[in-house]
Design goal:
single chain, alpha+beta, Ubiquitin-like (UB roll), Creatine Kinase, Chain A, domain 2, 2 domains, 9-stranded mixed sheet, 6-stranded mixed sheet, 15 strands, about 20% strand
Length: about 450
């Protein structure tokens, strides 16, 4: 048994069940519950799952084309270092470990988004650089019952909420016990909780994560943070939803990513001592803009994701950039020159963080390598100055993704293929459904 596993079991004698977790292409955790004595087998490379577990659709259904072609062959699930922790929201009996998938010959399976991200990060390491990433993660805290979803924010009796009381400190008191339990659980799981704020929509909150110079670790932490938040909320009888657009007329849930790059002397390559940043920063921004539409199936991966992208709804609708401007898709925040960075504001909270970071970092690196020019920064309302628009339907985004040379070069043909097939299956399911609005509009009138 590994030192990590042995130490964990000695430190937690009451744990009887290990939740073995494998994030799929949708960012959904797949895997098994294992008895504690099976943890040694996981660390010895003796735990297997079909490689098609990574390409299940959002409902957990097989993509039959992939199953039949591969014969549903197994891969080896290996533990992610540092992910073995107790799960305090379940009680004293459960622990968890996150997994990554390898081929039977022990080479990385490149349909695993974690391996895809590691491959992109290696481009930076080969250049002598270390990308630094952090995320702002929005979620809705709601009640869900037979009557639908309901807000949990305080509202006047008999009325619907008007506004979200953005940055309201008193509102946080409504869920003080739950939010404090989230903080404590993050501490126990060594996750980089860096504060929580009330966001612009009713029942919407944002959790901030610390900057780390390891994007793979940052993505691991986002995956585990989302699971933790959902678990603690469920313990309190609520649903923590990272759905991109849970309420029709309110701002959706995004995941803004901040990124800078350090060289081998720990100097930020975007910092020139002034407020505008270096040419490398502008090349990086240009790469983000150049490849944004091809990456939209990653940044907005689900049918509901495209509900976010409406003018004035705090989500960008075109590839554009600016300094200290929250109406654009790529923002360069103000602040100390040493902290000069870009903020990518497109991705929803419903995304797979490994793929978001992979697409973002590959865009940055291609922009730098090709010395791309982002054009003039937007000043004022970016929604009113939009040029090229981002895709507004999942089907359009999938077409761009599956035919993209950029995606194939950077995320790999295997990931490109299995992800596209999974997303086409999801899109087809939604297209086959008739909504209540259609009945209200057409059933009796036509």
């Amino acid at each position: 048994m590994s030192v990590e596993a042995d130490w964990f079991l000695r430190a937690h004698p009451d744990i009887t069940t290990i939740e073995a977790l494998l994030p799929d292409c949708n960012g959904v955790m797949r895997g098994k519950w294992l008895p504690r004595h099976k943890l040694a087998k996981v660390y010895q490379g003796e735990f297997k799952l079909p490689v098609t577990a990574l390409s299940l659709d959002i409902w957990g259904r097989d993509v039959e084309k992939l199953v039949f072609e591969s014969g549903d062959a197994d891969g080896i699930c290996r533990p992610v270092e540092g992910s073995l922790h107790a799960t305090p929201w379940v009680g004293d009996s459960h622990g968890q470990v996150m997994l990554s998938l390898y081929n039977l010959d022990n080479t990385p399976y490149m349909g695993d988004p974690r391996h895809v991200l590691k491959q992109v990060v290696s481009r930076f390491h080969n250049a002598g650089w270390r990308p630094v990433a952090a995320a702002e993660l929005e979620f809705s805290l709601v009640q869900h019952d037979i009557d639908g979803i309901k807000h949990t924010c305080p509202v006047p009796a008999g009325h619907s909420p008007i506004g979200g009381n953005t940055y309201g400190v008193d509102v946080l008191q409504t869920h003080a016990k739950l939010l404090e339990e989230i903080r404590r659980a993050c501490e126990l799981q060594e996750l980089p909780f860096d504060g929580i704020v009330k966001e612009s929509a009713p029942s919407q909150y944002e959790i901030n994560m610390q900057h780390v110079d390891n994007p793979v670790l940052a993505a691991d932490q986002i995956q585990l943070m989302k699971r933790l938040i959902k678990g603690v909320a469920a313990k309190h009888g609520l649903v923590a939803s990272f759905m991109a657009k849970p309420f029709e007329n309110e701002a959706g849930n995004g995941m803004h990513v901040h990124c800078s790059v350090l060289d081998d002397r720990d100097h930020n390559i975007f910092d020139d001592g002034g407020p505008l940043g270096t040419d490398l920063l502008r090349h990086a921004v240009a790469g983000c803009l150049q490849f944004m539409t091809e990456c939209m199936a990653v940044f907005a991966p689900n049918y509901n994701s495209y509900r976010r992208f409406q003018p004035g709804a705090h989500a960008p609708t075109s590839p554009c950039w600016g300094y200290e401007n929250r109406t654009v898709s790529v923002r360069v925040p103000a602040g100390k020159p040493a902290a000069r960075r870009l903020e990518h504001r497109v991705a929803g909270a419903d995304t797979n963080p490994y793929l978001v970071f992979a697409a973002l970092l590959a865009s940055i690196m291609d922009g730098i390598d090709q010395q791309l020019d982002p054009g003039e920064p937007i000043t004022g309302n970016g929604y009113e100055q939009a040029g090229e628009t981002l895709p507004i339907y999942l089907s359009d985004a999938i077409k761009l993704f599956e035919s993209s040379d950029f995606i194939e070069r950077n995320l790999g043909s295997e990931l490109q293929r299995i992800y596209s097939l999974s997303k086409w299956q999801e899109n087809a399911e939604f297209r086959s459904k008739i909504t209540e609005l259609e009945y209200q509009s057409y059933l009796e009138k036509l």
